[in-house]
Each structure stands twice: as C-alpha cells, then as structure tokens.
C-alpha cells in the first residue's frame, strides 16, 4: 500500500515521558491517520520498545529493532522500511504542531523541486536556562528564521562553502522527498567515513544532517525553511550544563570540517596533527575558558574545529 507520508522516530534509550508526548502530538495530527504510517526504529535500546509502547491508535504503526548503534544506521533502516513518498524524521523529544504533517504534504505538492524542508524548533526547557545559553541555541538545534519561507535552489555539481544556507533543514523534524533522499542513501550506505558522521550512543558527532543537505543540493534538489512547520523541542536539564554543551560544540565543530571535506569543500587548510594541541593551548589563552561557562563552551568549539583540521584528507 502506497502511503503519503512515513513518520520515522529513531530512538535510543528514550526518556519515556518525552516519547509519550511526541506520540501524543502525532496522535492529534490533522493529516488523516490512514494516509501516513508511523515507524519507530528502536536503535539498540536497553529495554525493547515493542514491549512497552501502545500504538493501537494508529492503523499503520510498527516498531522495529535496529541493533547497529548509530543515528545514521537507524535512519537508513527507517528509509528501507518506509512506504511513504514523503519521509518525516522526528526525534524522540520533538512535539509536532497538530498541522505539521498536513503542511509537509502541501509544501512538497507546491514545490516539486524541493528535496528537504524544515521549520521552527521552539524550546521547552525542563529548567530555566541561564542567559548565556541563548548563544548556543543553534548547537541545541533551536531554530527560528522568521515568518517568511526561505529556499536554496540545488546545483548539479559542487556547492561552495559560502553557498550552504544557514536556514538549511536540520535533523529535527526533517521532511524529505523519498526520491531525493534515495540519492543520499545510495552514497552513504557503503561509505564508512560518512556512516560515522551521525550520532552514536554518547558520541555527539552531528555531521549527518549537513551531509544530507549537501548531497541533495549537489544532486540538484532544493532545500527550504517554512515557518508553518513548527515543533516544540523538549530540552532536558542535563543538556543545559556546560560540560554537555562543550562536548556538543566540540563534536559539531569537528564534524562540520569532516562533512565539508567529504564534499570536496576545504575552506580551512589542513594543519599538521602534531600542532593541534599547541593550537588548542593558544586558543585557551585567547578564549580564557576559566572566565565563564560560555567562554568554556566557545573554546571547546574551537578545539573541535582544530581537531577536524588536523585530520583533514586532501580535497
């Protein structure tokens, strides 16, 4: 049976209170349940989710176990299992607005050249964040680019570094045209370097979203931001602590260098590996991470960037 949309939740040891809210929001979607399917990819969770989740409210709901740990592996499994012509990847802490799926269908119907779209990600914090946290909203995948749609057209060939749009979709609430995403799947499924760009367990590498966008742009598909696509991003208290944000900023900066290199984009020169620690120490003197938690998180981002430059391949 051909369905319009496949909603795919990739999850590893989810916080069940959050996942319950994600599922409740999906239950309230205005898009008719018989026109879309719900796939939950249990990515090697300690407790099997098929024994704990009640999905009887949905006529096309399935839970599948993917034992290869890693977000990219889980996403590829979701693609393999999906029957929809459109795919919507929803994190296990994403609460979609009730008309999200309807908007996805309408936007793709109106723009047949778009391969991927995203929208607003509005935070709901478990605890009140310190004022300095706002600087790192992007790292936390919190996004609001205003009330006007923004579109980047695709190119058949390499996209330059300065052509990557700030508003490009992120993994949070990511909606894809199946035909477009297939181009990414074919390129990544046998490429160990690109498979490693996704988050794996406690490893916070996060370059797979950029890899998807660049692959689609290079294949000639456009990407867009549409403000009517809105979700609430549930932010746990643990994610507002400086050690976590420092790890996240480090991993994001390092993987940004890696994914650009995969696509032949090298805005930074490769630096000798033996100089990385010296450069990180120089950055420590410049950013003075002991001054504040924000300064510490900034410094770790620079350290990640330098680490990425130290491991650059020729491109």
What's the alpha carbon Rg, rounded to whole Å? 19 Å
Q: Which class do the helix and strand fractions yield? A: alpha/beta
Note the total helix count.
9
Tally of strands: 9
Shape: globular
SSE string: EHEEHEEHEEEHHHEHHH
Main sheet makeup: 9 strands, mixed
Describe the structure.
The chain has 315 residues and is an alpha/beta fold. Helices cover 35% and strands 21% of the residues. The protein is built from nine helices and nine strands. Strands 1, 2, 3, 4, 5, 6, 7, 8 and 9 form a nine-stranded mixed sheet that branches. α4 crosses α6.
Compact description:
The chain is an alpha/beta fold and 315 residues long. The chain has helices at 16-27, 71-81, 100-110, 178-188, 192-195, 208-218, 242-262, 276-287, 293-310; strands spanning 3-11, 36-43, 61-66, 84-90, 94-96, 114-125, 150-152, 174-177, 222-235.
Structural features:
single chain, 315 residues, alpha/beta, nine-stranded mixed beta sheet, 9 helices, 21% strand, globular
Strand and helix map with partners:
Layout: E1 3-11, H1 16-27, E2 36-43, E3 61-66, H2 71-81, E4 84-90, E5 94-96, H3 100-110, E6 114-125, E7 150-152, E8 174-177, H4 178-188, H5 192-195, H6 208-218, E9 222-235, H7 242-262, H8 276-287, H9 293-310
Parallel strand pairs: 1-2, 1-4, 2-3, 6-9
Antiparallel strand pairs: 4-8, 5-9, 6-8, 7-9
């Amino acid at each position: 049976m051909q369905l319009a949309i496949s909603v795919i939740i990739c999850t590893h040891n989810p916080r069940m209170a959050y996942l319950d809210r994600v599922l409740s929001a999906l239950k309230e979607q205005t898009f008719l349940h018989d026109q879309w399917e719900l796939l939950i990819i249990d990515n090697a969770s300690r407790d099997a989710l098929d024994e704990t989740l009640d999905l009887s409210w949905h006529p096309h709901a399935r839970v599948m176990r993917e034992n290869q740990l890693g977000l990219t592996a889980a996403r590829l499994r979701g693609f393999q299992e999906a029957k929809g012509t459109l795919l919507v990847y929803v994190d296990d802490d994403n609460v979609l607005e009730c008309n999200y799926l309807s908007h996805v269908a309408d936007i793709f119907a109106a723009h047949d050249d778009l391969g991927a779209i995203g929208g607003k990600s509005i935070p709901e914090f478990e605890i009140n964040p310190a004022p300095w946290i706002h600087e790192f909203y992007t790292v936390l995948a919190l996004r609001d680019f205003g009330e006007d749609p923004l579109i980047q057209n695709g190119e058949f060939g390499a996209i330059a570094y300065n052509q990557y749009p700030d508003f490009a979709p992120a993994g949070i609430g990511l909606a894809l045209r199946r035909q477009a995403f297939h181009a990414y799947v074919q390129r990544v499924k046998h490429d160990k370097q690109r498979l490693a760009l996704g988050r794996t367990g406690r490893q916070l590498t996060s370059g797979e979203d950029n890899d998807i966008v660049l692959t689609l742009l290079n294949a000639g598909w456009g990407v867009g931001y549409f403000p009517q696509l809105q979700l609430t991003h549930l932010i746990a208290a643990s994610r507002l602590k400086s050690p976590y944000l420092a790890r996240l900023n480090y991993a994001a900066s390092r993987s940004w260098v890696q994914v650009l290199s995969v696509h032949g984009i090298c805005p930074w020169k490769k630096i000798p590996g033996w100089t990385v620690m010296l450069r990180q120490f120089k950055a420590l003197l410049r950013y003075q991470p002991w001054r504040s938690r924000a300064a510490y998180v900034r410094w770790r981002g620079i350290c990640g960037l330098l680490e990425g430059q130290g491991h650059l391949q020729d491109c």
